[in-house]
Please model this.
Amino acid sequence: FYSTNPKETFYTLEEVAKHDNEDDCWMVINGKVYDVTDYIDDHPGGDVILDGAGKDATADFEGNEHSDEAREH
Model:
């Protein structure tokens, strides 16, 4: 998967799976890896964001209402 981190371009789903908790939370959305750890407390839907931790969360993201701003990132 493509990373949003400029230091490392690609991650495997196995690598993403290691980051599956509130202290270290990565997820894949539409083929991009996001580190959302610092966003958990600010997520409008609360800690439901953790359901996608360490996974391909594209279906969860697309299946819920998200702002245009959320979709731009």
Remarks:
- The radius of gyration is 11 Å.
